[in-house]
Amino acid sequence: MQLEKTLTNPYAHDYQLLIKHILNAPIYCDPNQEIVYRGEKRFTYATFKKRVHKLAHMLTSMGVKAGDTVAVMDYDSHRYLECYFAIPMLGAVLHTINIRLAPEQILYTIDHAEDDVILTHTDFLPVLEQIKGRLDVENFIVLSDDEKIPPTSLHVKGEYEELLAKESDFFDFPDFSENTRATTFYTTGTTGLPKGVYFTHRQLVLHTLGVLSTLGSAPKQGSFHQDDVYMPITPMFHVHAWGLPYVATMLGVKQVYPGRYMPDVLLELIDKEKVTFSHCVPTIMHMLFNSPKINDVNLKGWKVIIGGAALPKAMCKEALKKGIDMFTGYGMSETCPILSLAQLTPEMLELDDEQQSDIRIKTGRPMGLVEMHVVDETMKSLPRDGISTGEIVVRSPWLTQGYFKDQKNSEILWHGGYLHTGDMANVDAKGYIKITDRVKDIIKVGGEWVSSLELEDIINQHPHIREVAVIGVEDDRWGERPLALVVVDANKSVNEKELLIHAKEFIKKGIMARESMLLKIKFVEKIDKTSVGKIDKKELRKQYAH
Predict the structure, then answer these.
(1) For the chain, N or C: smaller number of CB within 10 Å?
(2) More confident residue, 27 or 60
(3) Catalytic positions, please?
(4) Does residue 489 lie in a domain region?
(5) Does the pLDDT at position 368 exceed 90?
(6) Any idea what DSSP says for residue 67?
(7) Are 328 and 360 in contact (CB under 8 A)?
(8) Which has more confidence, 471 or 451?
């Protein structure tokens, strides 16, 4: 069969999907809308555009050019948002440094990413000074909330605001290929050294459009639209804050950046700035729910995407009682990240909180342009029966092509032409996917698989449990058995027998396998977290191996 030839017009403009184009609509339509930092500083979108242009001049005056890498160490701020645009718009690469890593890991990522310039908040100067003798970076810019530079032995070019003020507010950003690398960051979710994940302008723009179309077209629940007020509670160094700052900017909504996360400050900003849309991991929501100020703030109508870890059903039910529209979003560092959202159909909104929670805590349904399958070991798609369990594999135009300078792990990631998530799941007849566990976290008890996530969810539903992590530990008879590490609410008392009776009720209902009754309970004061707030099961397995 003869294929039709591609028609081209030499006079037509070859429009590339570049991050700079995301700014067009809000600057044209909503130039007076606000961008707020900690409730203390306010900028219009028109001013934001000028600051982006000034930042471009500042960086080029230091010799930054296309292909160079500029790193940022900051809390969630207006400055970070400016870097999200100015750096890739130059054709340079934005490296968002994970500020929660150990100094040695930070050194490794700076060296591996080949950073040329580092913009750092004053809080992180001591970390950089600790490793400066091994840093191959000469230019540092200080980000200071009081616009002052504390004493430092680093070669500092100046303070951000001081340098910005000297520059012109117009920069002629070039056109270039949409396949130019725009961002790099490092994921510590797997074993070994942090792995570099990278994304192009095309991927980031398509992800922005995909998320916007899914959230923007929601009729009643799980929506994000131009009347919303946006505040991220996901670090901007982590997967572009799930890509939502780009979505919010393209929409032209009011944006609120909270700086360092402190529960009382977050609640105050939600109340004062009338925030209606956010996203965070469960641990942050735990912090907010446990704040003494939680009952002083009206959270009705606040929409929150929970990701990074499973949304506990007990948390979801508590949120619904407070009028919060809480639902799951799913993705990985390698997927830009959002792949699916647990949005409800109109008829599902007629269900009670118990039934709604069962849907909201699922992984959800894939967004447009996302091809997700639950497959067995031979890569065969499993039935949509809500029972058959396999690994989630995915294709989409915004998935990373691999790990930066790591061919071996890139090939493993994309084995068979699909990106392998490492998440075990099932899918029901309506297309809702439910993760049952990570491949590496599922527990094999006497030859039967037991889901650590499902056990965590059951224990979390006890009214006096603050947090729980379930891991597999070695057992001479059963091979493995589940161990639950439990944090009890302050001023509450729970014993092991009571929790086992609680879990047994779910087993009687057929919700959990009988092997779950081999569960052991250990009460702890806290549970180790990774640098992005996820439960660190790799570290927990080391601590409680026997």
Answers:
(1) N
(2) 60
(3) 187, 334, 444, 449
(4) yes
(5) yes
(6) T
(7) yes
(8) 471
- Please list, in sequence order, all residues whose beta carbon lies within 8 angstroms of the beta carbon of residue 131, skipping any fewer than 6 positions away: 103, 104, 106, 107
For residue 328, the cross-strand partners are 306
135 lies in some domain: yes
Last residue of a domain, one of 143, 173, 198: 198
- Higher pLDDT: 509 or 307? It is 307
pLDDT tens for 131-168 read: 999 999 999 999 999 999 999 999 999 999 999 999 99
On the CB side of 203, CA atoms within 13 Å amount to 26
Domain termination site, one of 177, 198, 219: 198
CATH number of 150's domain: 3.40.50.12780
pTM: 0.86
Q: How many residues does the chain have?
A: 546
Strand, coil or helix: 230:
strand
In a domain, 35, yes or no: yes
CA 335 – CA 337 distance, rounded (Å): 4
Give the residue among 51, 61, 14, 187 at the shortest CA–CA distance from 113.
187
- HEC profile for 452-517? HHHHHHHHHCCCCEEEEEEEEEEECCCEEEEEEEEEECCCCCCCHHHHHHHHHHHHHCCCCCHHHH
The CATH number of the domain where 515 resides is what? 3.30.300.30
Helix or strand run (H / E) with residue 110: helix 103-113
Kindly provide the b/e burial profile for residues 153-182, where b requires at least 16 CB atoms within 10 angstroms of the residue's own CB. ebeebebbeebbeebeeebebeeeebebbb
- pLDDT 10s digits, 223-261: 999 999 999 999 999 999 999 999 999 999 999 999 999
**How far, in Å, CA of 225 to CA of 416, rounded?**
38
* Contact (CB, 8 A) for 458 and 513: no
- pLDDT of res. 190: 43
Domain presence at residue 415: no
pLDDT above 80 for 189: no
Domain of residue 151: give its range.
19-198
Place of tokens 């996203």: 279
